[in-house]
Amino acid sequence: MLYNHRRTNNWESRMRVAAGLAASITMLGTLAACGSDNGANPTPTAVATATASATSTRTSAPTPTALPTNTTTVLPTSTATTVPTNTPTPIPTSTATRAPTNTATALSTSTATTAPTLTPTAIPTPTATGAPTDTATETPTATPTDSATETPTETPTDTATATATGTSTNTTTPTPTASEVPSATETPSATPSPAPQSVARQWDEEILSAIRIDLPRPPIHARNLFHLSVAMWDAWAAYDPMAIGYLTTEKQTSTNIEADRAEAISYAAYGVLSERYSAALSVGAATSLASFTARMVALGYDPTITTTTGDTPAAVGNRIAQAVISYGLNDGSNEANNYKDPTYSPANPPLIVALPGTTMNDPNRWQPLALSHQVTQNGIPIPGNVQVYVAPQWGSVLSFAANLDALIPEPPPKLHDPVTDAAFKQEAVEEIQRSSQMTPDDGATLDISPAATGNNPLGTNDGGGYPVNPITGQPYTPEIVKRGDYRRVIAEFWADGPNSETPPGHWNVMANYVSDSPQLVKRIEGTGPIVNDLEWDVKLYFALNAAVHDAAVGCWGTKRIYDSTRPISMIRYMGELGQSSDPTGPSYNPDGLPLVPGLIEVITPESSAAGERHAALAAYVGEIAIFAWPGGPADPTTQYSGVQWIRAKTWVPYQKDTFVTPAFADYTSGHSTFSRAAPEVLARFTGSPFFPGGLGVFFAPKNKFLQFELGPSEDVQLQWATYYDAADQCGQSRLWGGIHNTEDDFAGRIMGSVIGADVYDKARTYFDGTAATGILTPTPAPTLTPTSPPTFTPTPSVTP
Questions:
Q1: Plot region of 499 (φ>0 → left; ψ -120 to 50 → alpha; else → beta)
Q2: Where are the strands (E) in 378-459, listed by range?
Q3: C-alpha to C-alpha distance for 236 and 766, rounded to whole angstroms
C-alpha cells in the first residue's frame, strides 16, 4: 500500500492518506486524483552552514467518509480512488489516479491545500458548509525568538452524497457521487468510483474529520473515539444473539437485520457525535454538526427523530446514544466543564520562548511556554500566550480494561537525584546530538528499509530488520537516504499536525488503511469465516479505540504523577547555568550541561575569534554554545536552516515557533503509548503483525513534504514491515522533533503494549458473549497524587 503526500499536507495527509485515502475516498465520494507534480522545485537555500557533524547513530483521505465539511485542510488529491494492489511498482510522487502498488500496504496519498466542503446533493436538508481553512502560510525566522504568522488559504468546495452502508441492504440509501474542486495548486486527473463503505466506517470518518478541525487534545479525542465505537458496537450487538453490548444489553429481532443495524448504528453515532462536538465542547462545532446532519440525510435517515421509545432502529440507536452520553458525564473527565481541571497548577513560571534562558523553581517539573501567540498544530489560534496543561486529570477517567496502579512505570531521571542525575544530564546531551543531525548536509546516510531497521525487542531500538518479507519470501530492498532527511521527515510525518486527527485518530486512519487493502482477507484473528465490512469495522473500532482510550488514561495518569520537564526547559536551564564537566574550567556549575567537543562547548575569546567556530557568538564569551538546529528559516518554502553553533539558552526543538512543544508534561510519551497499544490490537485482530503484503510505505517527495522548512532534499519513502515497526518509528520521531527523551519513548511503548493486549483480551469477551452481563462497573481509577519532588536549591555558577 502506498502513502503519498504533498507539501501542503503533513500528518493528516500522510496517515490520512492511507486510511484517509482509502477511507475517505471510498467513504463519501471519490477523491479526484491529483495530477503529477512536474513543476520545477525551488532552489534550496541553506540558511545555516553546518561546520561539524555528529556521529551517525541509527535507530533502528481523502474526502472523508461523510459529507464532512470539516475534512482535513489537506486532502489527498492524488490519492487513488481504489486501494493499491500489491504488484511491485515504483512509488509515484503524487501522480497516480490509483494508489500505487508496491508490494506494500503503502499509504498512498497526495493532498490539496485545504479540506473540501461537502454538501449533500438531491437532499433538501442541512448543508455542511464553511470547512475551516487549516492550511497556513508560515513565515518563521531564523531566530527561535520570532513567531510565525499563519494565513489561512482558500477552501475548495465538494459536493457529494454518501452510500448508506457497505453491508446494509437498506434500499433508501442514495447512491454516492462526488466531485472535488481541488486547490489551485492541484491538478485533478480522474474521478474514480468509490467502493461502498459500512456505516461504521462512515461515522468513523465523520469523527476523524471533526477532530481535525477541533483543538488537538489527544486524550479527549481518544475518549470520544472510544465512546463512538461503544455506541456503534452496542447497536450492532443489539441484533446479534451472542454478542454483548458494553453499556446496553438489549436484544432486538428483525426481518432485515443489516438494514436495521445500519439505522440503529447511525442514530447512536449521530447522537453521540452531536453531543461531543457541540458548541460547548468543540471549536469546530458549526462545521461538524452540519456534516453529521448531512451524513444522516445522505444515508436516508431523518435526523429530527429523537424518540427513545419503542423497538424501531431509530429508537434503539437513540437509547444507546443516551446511555453513552450519560456514562460520559460521570466518567471522571469533567466533560460538563469542557474537561478542565481546576486542581492543577504548574510548579514553574512560564518559559518565554522569545527570550534566552529560563527560570525554574524545579527543573524536574513541567514548565508552560509563553509564546508571542499560540497556534495549534492544526492551525487554530489559542487565546492568550501561556500554555494551559491539557487534561491533567485524565488518569482518573474510567478505563475499559487498564489498571493505572499496575501500569505506572519507574520515575524518569531527575537532576540532583543521587542515582539518576547523570542520566538526566545525558538525556540533554542526546537531545542536543539529535538536534545536530537535523540537516541533509552532513553526508550521513541510513538504510531505512525493513532489511536493516525494525524488528525491535519491546522497549528498545536494537532490532536489525528482517532477512526476508515473510509474505513474499523475497528480501526487502534497501532504501538508502540522507540521515537528516529521514529524521526531519519522520519528525513531521508523525507529528500531531497540521490538520491532524491526533495520534489516537491517526491509528484509526492506519486501521482503515489496512482494512482497505485488497490483500487483506477479513477473517477476525485470521481464522474462521470471512465477515462483512460492517462486522469487521464495528469490532475493530471497538477494540482499537478502547486501546487508545486506555492508553490516554495510562499515559496522562503517569504525566500527572511525575509532572516531568520537557527538553526545551532542561536544555535552556542547564545551558544557562554553565558546564558541569570541568570544575577548574570556565563557567562551571554542577547542574550545567556536560561538555562534548564539537557539540557542547564554552564560548571563549579564542573560539569566537574571527574565522573560528564560535565567531558568530563573540558577544557571548563565557556562555555555553551547542551545535544544533537553530530554528525555522525565514522562508520555509525555499529555505532550510541546517545546523550551526547557537547559544544553549536559546535552543528550540524541531517544531514551528507558534507551537514549540505540547502543553502537558513529558513522561511518558503519548505518541509511544498510543502507537504501541493500537498495533497490539491490529496484530491480534487481523491475525498478523505484518502489514498486508508485508510492507507499508509512505512517500515524501523531494522539497514537497516538509512544513517547518524546505525538504526533504531527495525523495524519502518510509517503510514498515509490521505495525510494531510503525509504532516504534512514531515514538522515535518525537525524539528527533525535540519533544521527548528516550526514557519517555521506551516507557510509553512498554505501557502501550500491556494496555493493548489487555484491552483486546477483554474486547473478545464482548464478541464471543462471555463478558460479564448486567450493569457495567468500569475499572476504578486511582486518585492521582503527584510525587513530591525534593526541595530544589540551584547551585550558583562558579567561574575560576
A1: left
A2: 381-382, 445-447
A3: 12
Using CA of residue 337, residue 339, residue 343, residue 349, what is the dihedral sign? negative
Identify which of 202, 190, 222 has the alpha carbon closest to the alpha carbon of residue 66.
202
Sequence-distant (≥ 6) Cβ neighbours of residue 679 within 8 angstroms: 689, 722, 723, 724, 726, 727, 756
Pairing of strands 351-352, 369-370: parallel
Burial 303-332 (b: 16+ CB within 10 A, else e): beeeebeeebbbbbbbbbbbbbbebbeebb
Find residue 593's DSSP bridge partners.
Answer: 579
- Strand, coil or helix: 783: coil
Q: Grid cell 464471543 — which residue? A: 768
The DSSP call for residue 456 is P
Neighbours of 464 (CB within 10 A): 12
**Distance of alpha carbon 320 from alpha carbon 312, whole angstroms:** 13
Helices (H), 238-384: 257-276, 285-299, 313-328
751 residue type, one letter: M
Rounded CA Rg of the chain: 25
Least Cα distance to 756 among 676, 691, 688 occurs for 676
Tell me how many degrees the CA angle 747-750-756 measures, rounded to the nearest 5.
Answer: 135
pLDDT tens column, 669-686: 999 999 999 999 999 999
- Let me know: does 194 contact 23? Beta carbons within 8 Å: no
Contact assessment for residue 292 and residue 233, using Cβ atoms and an 8 Å cutoff: no
Confidence (pTM): 0.78
Give per-residue burial for 663-685: e unless 16+ CB within 10 Å, then b.
Answer: bbbbbbbbbbbbbbbbbbbbbbb
What tens digit of pLDDT does each residue of 365-408 get? 999 999 986 666 666 676 678 999 999 999 999 999 999 899 99
